[in-house]
Every structure is written in C-alpha cells, then in structure tokens.
Amino acid sequence: MPGLVDVARKYAAALTDTNGVTLPPAEVERFLLDFAGEVAARPEDAGATRRFTALFSSAPLGIALTDAAGNVVEANGALARLLGTSTTALRDRHIADLAAGPQDAERLRTALDGLPLTADARRTVQSVQLGHSRDGELTTNVTLASLPGDRPGTYFPVFMAADDDDLHLLGERLRHQNLHDPLTGLPNSAAFNAQLELALGSGGSDEIALLYLDIDGFKVINDGLGAGMGDQVLKAISRKLKSVFDGQHEDYVARLSGDGFAVLLRGPELTAQKTVVLADRVLEELSEPVYVDGHGIGVSASIGIVVRPANDGSHSDLLRAAELALHRAKEAGKAQWMLFDPQLDARDRNRYQLGAVIAGALENGEFSLIYQPTVKLAKPDEIAAVNAGLLWSHPERGELGPEEFYPLAQTTGMTVPLGKWLLQESLGATARWREQYGPAAPDVCIRLPKRLAIDPDLVLLVKNQLDRHRLPARALRLCTDRASMFDGEGELLDSFSVLADLGAQLVLTISGSSDLELIPRYQLPVKHVILSGPVVDALADPDPAETDVRHLSQLVTRAKELGLRIGAEGVRDAGHAERLREQGVLAARGSFVAESATGDEVDEMIARHAG
C-alpha cells in the first residue's frame, strides 16, 4: 500500500497537470476530499498534516476549515482573495457571516444544519451572495462537505466557494476548446457535424453545399520542413479559407483532422455553379505560396463537392457523397475539384464493393492462372516462354482480368498477397511442365506488382519458392518496365539485381530508345527486352511508314549491340508477326497466337510442341 508521500504526489500531480485548462471546482473539491480521506486513514504518519496543509494552501478553490459549529478555523489564500480580505480576518467567523445579506446567511445556516457529519456527506448551494470587502456582493457557488478529523470517526464541516462568473468563463472556455481546433481556431469535426445536423434538421427549401478539402502532399511539408512548419502552413490555409468564404451563404468553415478541412454553405440562391466558383477561388488562393521563415511553400488541394436541397438526404448520405467526390478528385490527379455525380457514385460503389472482397476471393479459390504464350517467330509452333497472370472468376460478375481488380487491390493493400500467390502458383505449374515435358517445357514469365517489387523480403520469397518447387532460378523470368525498376525516390531496386545474380532472367518492356538506354546507363542485368506500344503497332499495317520501320530497326540493332534477345507483345496476326521477324524480332505474343489461354490450353500447346 503506498505511503502518504506517494498519495500526496498523486493528488498534487492531478491538480497541476491539467493540460493548460483550469480544473472545474467540482474536480478540485473531489481531489481535496479524497486526499483528506486517505490522510485520515493514516493517523500514524506525522507528516500527513503538513502535506495536507500544503495541498489546502495551494488549491485554486476558496476553502475554509471549520469547527463543528461552523466557525472558521483556517481559510486558504484563495478564499481570502475571493472575498477581498485576509486569512487572519476570516478566522473565527461563522460561515453564515460570510454572506452578503440575511437571506443568503440563512441559506448557509440551513445547509450547514442539514449536513450530516459522516463520510462522503456533501451539500451544494448555488448562487450565494457572499460579502466582498470592496465590491459589496459576489455571486458564488458554495459546497459544504464533511472532512475527516484528526481522530478516527470524527468529521468537521469544510466550506468551499467558487466565483460564479469564473465558473461561467471556465465553462465557456471549456466549451470553446471542445468545439474548436486549438491550432487554427476553426470549429472542429464535432462542431461541424452538429452544424450539419442543424442545417439538415431545419428543413426548408434552401440548398446546402458541402465541400471536403484535403491538402495534396502535405506529408512532404511535414517530413521535409518539420511539423512546426506544417502547423504554420495549416494556419495560413485556414486564413485563406476564411477569406474566400465570407458569410454570403451562411458559410461554416471547419478543420476536421490533420490536413482535412470542410466547408458548409447554405442559402436560398445557392447553386452548384456558385459553389464551384468558390472552389476555384480556393484553388487559386492556395496556389499562392505561403511564406514561413523565408520559405515560399506551395500547396494545392483536392476538393469534393456535393450540392442538394436541405431536405434531401441524411447527414451520413451527404458526408459520404462529399467523401466520394473527394476521392475522385484525388484519383483524377489532385489540385482540382469534383462535383458529386450519382451515376459515377453507383459505378464507384460497385468498384469499391469489388475491392473489398478480394481477400475473401483469394482465400475461397476464386483466382486462377491465365497465360499468354510467347512463340518463336522463326518457328511459330515452338513456345519460347509463357507469361502468367491472374484471372478472377467472380461468382456474380464472371471472369475479371487483372486490369479490373489490380487497381482496387492497390487501394486495399491486396497486391502483395496476389503477387505472392501468382509467384507460387506459376512456379508450381513450371515445375509440373518440366517434370512432364523435360527440355521442351517453357520458362514462366511473371510481372510482379510494384508493391511486391519493392518489398524487402522479395528475394527471400522468390528463393524459397524456387527451392520449394526444386527449380533453377533461370526457369523464372521477371518482367518489368521503366516505372517498376525504380523506387519512389528514383533509386534502382536492388532486389532485381540480386535475383539476376541468383540466375533469374530479367525482362524489360520498352517502348523506345530512352527505355532501352536505361540498360547500359544503369548496367541493368537484363537479358531480354520486349517491344511494346506504338513501335509494335506501327508495323500492324501491311504497308508501314518508312520512318516507323527505321525506328524499329534502330531499336533492334541497338538491342543486339547490347547482347539482348528481342521480343514483342501485342502482335495481331501472322503478317504482323512476319514483318517483325524480318526486322530481327525473335519471339512474340499476342492474338496471332492466343490472346489468353487457360492452364489446360497451355498444357495442350506445350504437349504439341514437345511432340
């Protein structure tokens, strides 16, 4: 059981550590009485009285200790200051004599007479007029309570008073703090939601506009210049918002959290057109740099807007609509506003529903491998490699390709589990082909999601899967492109180099000379390049332009100089394939072979090739 020193420290800390907010008198009373109770329970500790006296003297609440009859034995400095007198002058006065008039004196006597001298007894008398030495009358709230005496089982009254005006100011201050953001002074999310509920609950035909704002790339400011600088920028943003929304439409600007703000507009003549004009003004204001400590800091914002009658829809519907519009603004490139569109909302809702169930679909076996065979152009019946991808057999929406679910997986964090499953299953298929067809079995080529490509455990993951299926590393081709070769800071990914050192074959998809020249510039361990995009499409025409043919020829020549094997994707027909072969392209994939193939179809193709 802790000693009285620990008890005193506990209550002293509670009285002083208040985060800059003055404790309400009721809290001070509770601390004081609880402390006195613990002191009384330890009469053997001679220092208890001294510690209690120190606490009593420093309390911000006016307190008088009295005898059983109600005469003041000791008053603290706070009570003396409250009444404009001294502690000495208060001693021996009856608490009823502290009242400014006979009526209030009688109220105090009645309260004292009705106070049982037992543990936890307490009576509160509100709006008592006490006498002040200079100001005459002072409105206070008085609490009478029983305080344990120095002998077990004895109790004496204690008188506690607080200025009613101070209480009112304290209440107002606490109420303001509860409803306003301490950094910007704007209303906070609780106040904003209450205001929105009020606007919707009032009914009427007024239009309501809700704008959700999110500062683009604010993390860069915080991380690059420090949180203190970020706070200054947020203050400047709040001032700019208040300057734009000047009250013409019952404007209400709030800071919701972090770098998120909201604006509520209301008025009989409010329209979507007027609202987007204001949104444009916000973007224009924010485009002007904010100068803090000599730094000109530029910011932009994405804004989601919803405008509708005040009697149309619920609070949650309105918030959700604004959030969806904000997400759409960010997805479209940021630094712009988007107006809520019900049709787009229905489309997005379907997309988000799809994204939300990817994890369950993977666990329930709804994903399978889909392949694109790459054939040798000199011998189109021979398979050079097989590109493996994912197909989602959705129970309601049918077969979904990667382009339909990978962007959603990126949002929900499911790209890594999907990538791991793709790697595991494709290497499993490769091991089966090698066991069944021997040297005729093709290599498998997979494109890792960017999130998995930058995973620090990628090398270990690949090595474990190769060992599990007893495959040499050269059986795996990792297909990547310019964007996936570098991390967010522009640094070359070490994992690809390590995997190449293990024996995996790195395949780089290129669309022009600038992509190809990355290989010598960074000494990339690339063995194959795949031509893609316009450079391949240009030769789909039976009579391609001479400049297009020359461009392709130059790429192929340069690739050969670098010792690379050249392939192409997106090849449409046999004529297209032949024109590419004539320019030196060795292998290709596309609809001229098969746009896609199931596992059984690939098995059949490999069997024909092996035969």
TrEMBL record:
Xref: Pfam families: EAL (PF00563), GGDEF (PF00990), PAS_8 (PF13188)
Membrane-traversing stretches: none
Annotated PAS domain residues: 48-113
Name listed for the protein in its UniProt record: Diguanylate cyclase
SMART domains: EAL (SM00052), GGDEF (SM00267), PAS (SM00091)
Lineage summary: Bacteria, Bacillati, Actinomycetota, Actinomycetes, Pseudonocardiales
SUPFAM superfamilies: EAL domain-like, Nucleotide cyclase, PYP-like sensor domain (PAS domain)
Ranges of residues in domain GGDEF: 206-342
Domain EAL: start-end pairs: 351-610
